[in-house]
Automatic annotation (TrEMBL):
Organism: Urochloa decumbens
Catalyzed reactions per annotation: Hydrolysis of (1->3)-beta-D-glucosidic linkages in (1->3)-beta-D-glucans
Its membrane topology: Lipid-anchor; GPI-anchor
InterPro entries reported in the protein's UniProt record: GH, Glyco_hydro_17, Glyco_hydro_17_plant, X8
Domain of life: Eukaryota
Listed name of the protein: glucan endo-1,3-beta-D-glucosidase
Keywords: Cell membrane, Disulfide bond, Glycoprotein, Glycosidase, GPI-anchor, Hydrolase, Lipoprotein, Membrane, Plant defense, Signal
Recorded family membership: Belongs to the glycosyl hydrolase 17 family.
Enzyme class: hydrolase
Lineage: Eukaryota, Viridiplantae, Streptophyta, Embryophyta, Tracheophyta
Amino acid sequence: MVLLAHEKKKWQIREESMAPTRLLVFILGAAMAPLLFVPADAAGQVGVDYGRVANDLPDPATVAQLLKQSGITTVRIYDADEVVLRSLANTGIKVTVMVPNEILADVAGNPSHALDWVRSKVAAFLPATQINGVAVGNEVFKSRPDLNPQLVPAMANVQAALAQLGLAGAVKVTTPIAFDAVVNSFPPSDGRFQDDIAQSVMTPLLGFLQRTGSHLTLNIYPFFAYAAPSSTINLDYALGNPNPGVTDPNTKLVYPTLLDAQLDAAYYATEKLGFSAVQWRTSLTESGWPSGGRWGNSLEAGGVLRSGAASIANAQAYNNNLINRILSGKTGTPRHPDADLDVYIFALFNENLKGSGPDDIERHFGLFYPNMQKVYEFDFHGGAPPPPPPAPPGAESWCVASAAAGDDRLQAALDYACSHGADCSGIQPGAVCFEPNTLLAHASYAVNSYYQNMGRASGTCDFSGAAHVVFQEPDEICDPNASWCVANAAVGDDRLQAALDYACGHGADCSPIQPGGKCFEPNTMVAHASYAVNSYYQRNHRASGTCDFSGAASVVFKAPKIGNCVLPWKAWIQETTSMSEGSYAAI
């Protein structure tokens, strides 16, 4: 007997939704576009972006071994760090280095400066370290538009320096292009470059790439188009799962994925300047999906994410779909079926110094945690991800549904789990874990309940490939015995004040946040609002819908801490729980 009848959503794919007003590509740290230089007849290749904006990452020598063990054969770094480059020596791993924006003007105006840089940052490490590309600048059009006039001259000086040292054939020069340089991105056939860069910068830049045999490099994140709160883009379309596709009304071409549509928008933009996309190999130098986080500065509406957008399951689906697509030779698009494409997955690690807090999605793009444990399963050899290794003796583990499985398999997994011993009462309407009311969230709850009830035995988290084991506690699985309501700083003080006032006026115990109270400090709007909305949520027995406040708050399943004030989770029984207990991540 099926205990939970989950109504499947009939997704409506609206073509106009493909062009949200702000298709913004994250600048994640000092991002740059690497190049992967391979013979023209080679199959597409997949690498990773090795960022280091963190204070808890393994040393570069250890990372080099991790790359080899994982089958990752090409990386990009965000500088030309000597320690990293020497660690990659004699590993067979190809690497791209970067000329940072800070010195771009000097490189453009002084050929000898360019020569010195190439000699010390590239030639000095060859041939032991296989440097095969130099990216000049970092999304200059977006992050440093004042440098636009110097961009192509800087690239030309680096190219000339490589030629002078006899390296121009092996090391290619390009620059990253953030996708928001393309306007009118849907329908793809309307794609064109921004007016202020089209003729003045893009035309000479594309001419340079054509003359030197270099790559067109693009940073594209379908996640940001999907995750905007105003977006109605279909999740399967964004992840690259099976879906009906979206048709360009001008060309009648059908786009199976959002990434295909974005790539073709860029290709059409180059054609409008008189160039053909098949004249060069394209590198998708940054693309990825965050496995966690609740907000990000590159999104509209104050950075608030569309509900459920950032999750382990979605990140696994997007990145594995992209990896498998390229390694299986499917590098073309509807406009250019024979186009070549290489891809770099952003990023190698979760980086704890990115963004502005633990809930910032910038910190959750990694394939690995800093301890080198996978965030989820992936495979750089192609094919389906291998089964996860058994948990170390005594280690905790959880079972999480995979978005890549699609709705039918998720529903089957949910039905089986609920009818074979899982306790699915927590995801019934009105129950503590009914929200978020999505098939993926409910399936994760059900399969994890089944897995735990079966003693986490081998094979009890498979569900014909619809679920997988993780060894870090996932944010997306609701614990019916513990949840909290926290305010969202991104909505602004006015909405936070309204939420606080409502909560305090409708049953919340707000005495601890009065002057002199246990939780008066920190004396900030978001801290006081979090205490108030959580008190209201707990006193209403964590009922569905009691932690919304018109989007000013949301439920979390890990205990939050605000300064020295720990938010209680059984407020209706004991709201005066000690405010100094516990050790939790700070909001």
